[in-house]
Amino acid sequence: MRLDHLSFAAGPDGLASTAQRLGELLGRDFTDGGVHPRFGTRNMTLPLSEGTYLEIVEVLDHPASDKAPFGQAVRARSLLGGGWLGWCVSVDDIHEMEQRLGREAVKGNRHRPDGTELLWKQIGVNGLISDPQLPFFIHWEVPAELHPGHGADGEYSLACLEIAGDSQRVSEWLGQSVEQPLEDVKVDWVAPNGAPGIIAAQIQTPSGLVRI
């Protein structure tokens, strides 16, 4: 179990403009990740060190976005002006999470602009919707070299994650200490003053620390 990625919902200006704005802050461009046909969303990504990555995601005018929990979550966050949607943990055995949560994982896929198809299963988005401090879970079904976080040059890394919430509550959700998937990341837990969830991410860049 390890941190896989952070999801940021596009604002009213749309995916491309949100990606350009954050890319300018970080000093590096996001790349087109493609459409998630089963979720009615699409994304742009930026790889970080330790096999993690940032994702900016936008809901599409597509029937799937009304049915899929992930599409619903993205739409709700974007309607609030955009911002941090949540965080995702990669697991080796998705069946264990299915048993713990009492439901089946859903299949996900997207085609990169070069035509390569990425496949995965995910579960736990309903938990994120009800309590945004909670991560959802992903199991990739592609070789490691196709993971969106692969190929990072080490110049960009997640230095700190600021979360409004309770580490004990998250540990209960994970079924183990939250320190395991976040062992390489400093986490500042803040008592919620409003909705729980990610407050900010601090990214180490060649030009210094950038807080988003």
Highlighted features:
2,3-Dihydroxybiphenyl 1,2-Dioxygenase, domain 1, alpha+beta, 6 helices, eight-stranded mixed sheet, 212 residues, 12 strands, single chain
How would you describe the overall organization of this protein?
This protein has one domain (2-153): 2,3-Dihydroxybiphenyl 1,2-Dioxygenase, domain 1 (Roll). Strand 9, helix 6 and strand 10 form a beta-alpha-beta unit. The strands form two sheets. Strands 2-3-4-1-5-8-7-6 form an eight-stranded mixed β-sheet. The protein has helices spanning 15-26, 63-67, 69-79, 94-101, 125-130, 167-174; strands at 2-9, 31-36, 41-47, 53-59, 83-90, 106-111, 117-123, 136-140, 157-164, 186-190, 197-205, 208-211. The protein is of the alpha+beta class. It is built from six helices and twelve strands. The two termini are 25 Å apart. It is 24% helix and 38% strand. The model has no long low-confidence stretch (mean pLDDT 94). 42% of the residues are buried.
- For the largest sheet, list the strands in their spatial order: 2-3-4-1-5-8-7-6
Task: Pick out the low-confidence regions.
Answer: none
Question: What fold name stands as the CATH topology?
Answer: 2,3-Dihydroxybiphenyl 1,2-Dioxygenase, domain 1
Q: How many domain units? A: 1
Number of strands: 12
Average pLDDT over all residues = 94
Q: DSSP strand (E) fraction?
A: 35-45%
Fraction of helical residues = 10-25%
Give the overall silhouette. globular
CATH architecture field:
Roll
User: What name goes with the CATH superfamily?
Assistant: 2,3-Dihydroxybiphenyl 1,2-Dioxygenase, domain 1
For the record, give the distance between the C-alpha atoms at the N and C termini, rounded to a whole number. Answer: 25 Å
Report the structural category.
alpha+beta
Q: Nearest-angstrom radius of gyration?
A: 16 Å
SSE order in H/E notation?
EHEEEHHEHEEHEEHEEE
Number of helices: 6
Largest sheet: 8 strands, mixed
CATH class: Alpha Beta
